[in-house]
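Quick one:
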Amino acid sequence: MRTTPSEKSLSQTVCLVDDDPLVLRSTALLLASEGFVVRQFDKGEGFIAYAASHAVPLVVLDIWMEEMTGFEVMARLCATSPQTHVILVTGHDDTVARTLAMQIGTVDFLIKPFDDEQFLGVIHRALAHWLGS
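Output:
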C-alpha cells in the first residue's frame, strides 16, 4: 500500500510528453496517485507551447516520437526554459542516446517499462534538486 503523498508533492507539477497513449495515461495515473499535478502532452509542439508560458520544474520526455524527437524538444526547451529538469525515457536501450542524454544534462535516462518505485524516486530527486536551484 502506498503512503500518503508528501506535502511537497501536492504542489509540484510534472509534465509528461509521450506519443504512446498507454504510457502517457499509466505514468500520469502513477504520478497523480503520489499527489503530483500532471500535465500530459502527446506531441512535443504542444509541450513547447505550454512551457513558453508556464513554469515547468520537470518534464518526463520520450525520446523517440514521430513528429519531433525528445532531443529536438529538449533543444527548443533549453532556449525558453533552461531551468527545467528533464528525464528522458525510451522503449529501446540505445547506448548512443543514453550517452548523449547524460552529456546534455538530463536528470536521468530510463528504459520503458520502468519500475514504479524507481521512477518515483527519480521524480522526487529531480524536484528536490530543482527546488534547491
